[in-house]
## 1
Amino acid sequence: MPLECDPTSAQVLAGRQKTRRHPAGARAGWHDGRMAESTKVELGKVQQTLFFPLLARARATRGRRPLLRDPKAVEMVQAVDFDLTAFRAPMQFPVVIRTMILDSWIRQFLAGHPAGTVVELGTGLNTRFERTDNGSVHWIDLDLPDTIELRRQFFADTGRRRMLAASLLGDDWLAEVEALPGPYFFVADGVLPYLTEEQVTGTLARIAARFPGSGLAFDSYPRVALEWEHKMAAKRDIAFWQWSCDDPRTLERFGLRLVESVTPTRPPAGVRAELPGRFRYLLPLADPVFGRGLRVNLFETAPQPPAPGTTE
Ligand SMILES: C[S@@+](CC[C@H](N)C(=O)[O-])C[C@H]1O[C@@H](n2cnc3c(N)ncnc32)[C@H](O)[C@@H]1O
């Protein structure tokens, strides 16, 4: 679907913003091991939200005992010529643990299907491939054209990994994924809340119908979190979330089966085991703060029905 037909396009396009220049030389940074000219940023309002998780991962990496190491995020934050003030999350932990949980599900998928295909929907400047590459996975990083233009300043296509400039609301990208070897795993990290409910459920249903037996993982937020985000976004003049979901099981009617749904305070056992002791024991106590706003969900799309006339 072209962007013009996309009901979120007003938000997507309205905030297209000219490069904000910093004092000469002040933001020149390092990336790929060399001094870079400041990288210009011209992104729509929704696309700019990629700086939220990027900053959180960069700041977490620079911490004293980091839960997550994302040195490339640090380089990219230093290299962009853009005022990031509005995208400082009050707390990094939800983004960091969400990243760790989604990474762990990708590794789990790759353990069973080392040469399968992972599709990162709304990839922004995420470095999940760098964190989870097993040497044989095929990978697509999909995002809107202006985001991919920025992403190309920092990442390069290779034989197994490439960037795709497309709206996930369109159909074109589905054939590009089908051309790669299955099985497939789709991940959308911090993306779906920016779409309308109709767009989210339509996208999930299209993936389920076209890619039976695939994995699909994404974060969701209850109505109460949407209200909090709207207040914060209005103050900072940034994009508003549009979709909330109080119960991820309600999404099963779109051809999905919910395999696991966790909160940041009760992550999967494998992720919990990676956390330092103080986190493992204290996290459940943080349920009232971190346990109610965010869920990270792992779904499976319904398996392919047997062809007529065949026996299972
Ligand atoms: C909060 S950012 C998350 C970025 C990335 N997933 C991460 O974790 O760093 C939301 C991302 O969704 C992308 N996005 C929003 N609407 C989209 C659409 N219709 N098609 C593809 N990407 C979209 C934005 O461009 C942006 O990169």
Note: The mean pLDDT is 87.
## 2
Amino acid sequence: MNSPPPAIQQLTAPSSSQNSARIKWNKRYLCNTDSSPAFEPALVLLEYAHLLPGSGRALEVACGLGGNTLFLARRMFEVDAWDISDVAIGRLIQRAGQEKLAITAETRDVLRHPPAPKCYDVIVVSRFLERAMIPNLIQALRPKGLIFYQTFIKDKDPCVGPKNPAYLLGENELLTLFSRLKVVLYREEGQLGDCHQGLRNEAMLVAQNW
Ligand SMILES: C[S@@+](CC[C@H](N)C(=O)[O-])C[C@H]1O[C@@H](n2cnc3c(N)ncnc32)[C@H](O)[C@@H]1O
């Protein structure tokens, strides 16, 4: 496929909290190697890809290295990918360029600059939780649009994922946060039964706009 080069856009005038988040995440991505598994899509997208429409406009919020973005772009979605880390966005653009995938990647604070209403057929969020922007994500879906969400839960192995409880989901919380949508699937297994099997440490949801 002959595609235009991936686009990047730097929004102006970052605030000091935006700067500190950017610096923190840039440091983490600079420590990452190119073979990092973070170029992989989240399980919620990988296992439930059969729920995706055949084409459309997609957004990955807080994309990091953009495993979900690359996955969607390979399936010919028109993908916007946003993250506060310019290092992560730079690496994503490089990877997309190597694969000749057309994506639009932006260094962007999604809290200050949430998506506009009714723009996307698919939105993906993995390992990022900012409850305040959930209403913006719901509004950003087009009619029948889908959200794929996967992130850490409180009932997890303490050695895995963030320690700050503000970034961890409570029981059934994704169901509550997206209660305005039609739930297609929800998985949260916590520490139930044999923890060597199943989905541990995270919850996942796919939900559809009416
Ligand atoms: C744990 S990483 C997850 C990255 C990716 N979604 C994944 O699953 O591999 C969290 C990401 O959120 C980004 N992030 C944190 N605050 C943000 C904000 N306000 N706006 C945009 N991105 C943000 C970080 O730069 C980081 O890439």
Note: Residues 21, 25, 38, 42, 62-64, 67, 82-85, 88, 109-111, 126-128 surround S-adenosylmethionine (CB under 6 Å).
